[in-house]
Amino acid sequence: MAAPVIERRGVLIVDDDALLRDMIAQVLEKAGFNTVTAANAIEAIGLTRTANPDAVVIDIDLGIGPDGLQLAEAITRESPGTAMVFLTNLPSARFSSRPSATVLDSVAYLRKSRLATSDELVVALNAVLSERVTPEQRHDQHAGDPLAHLTTAQLEVLRLVSEGLSNDQIAELRHSSTRSVERLFARTLEALHIDPQQGAARVHAARTYILATLR
Q1: Tell me: the pLDDT tens digits for 13-45?
Q2: Which of 131, 108, 134, 121 shows the shortest CA–CA distance to 2?
Q3: N or C: which end of the chain has fewer CB within 10 A?
Q4: Residue 56 CA: distances (Å) to CA of 2, 34, 65, 80, 148
């Protein structure tokens, strides 16, 4: 059973999935929290100013617009005392569109696929509100990431390849040359022990990334 809520606190829930957003709100309301919800970062910033929540539960992938990591940074600048829980499908912030981003030690990081019960979210909220985050609330720090040995640049190019982008498109996004991307991707294949001469090397690399995000 989840630990009791310390006191009735306000929580902002930010997720672009309306059904999931409402389900989380119901769970937290039942646990004794007051909740407000937002579908994107713009809505969330407005609610942060008007509702002044004690904590926020944020998905990292919020669709079009700023992602959850950027939202968290904005909230921290405006309301430094706001507690935070990332609730996401990503194994770590390294798998986001900004792989160099970091998650503060005071923040909980929960993977949706690893939650056995909704009680774990309540426990995580209590932990960040009391500033007592434990390893159990940091799924991004658990061992077993098959891509942990990749550099930030290698992980980024692998993510873009998994999204179906060509080397030319990746070069444009990275503001670099196609040749530089080709060299970077070749080093990434080498790090993954994928033979670049095999016909499906690019598909194999993309599959490796996708499966890693599903672990």
Answers
A1: 999 999 999 999 999 999 999 999 999 999 999
A2: 121
A3: N
A4: 19, 11, 18, 12, 28
CB 72 within 8 A of CB 84: yes
| Element containing residue 152 per DSSP (H, E) | helix 152-162
Distances in whole angstroms, Cα of residue 88 to Cα of each of 38, 51, 205: 15, 23, 23
Query: Cβ distance 161 to 189 under 8 Å?
Result: no
How far does Cα 25 stand from its chain's mean position?
19
Q: Six-digit token pair at 150?
A: 């990749």
Give the C-alpha separation, 70 to 68, whole Å. Answer: 5
Question: DSSP secondary-structure letter at 138?
Answer: B
Q: What is the residue type of 63?
A: G
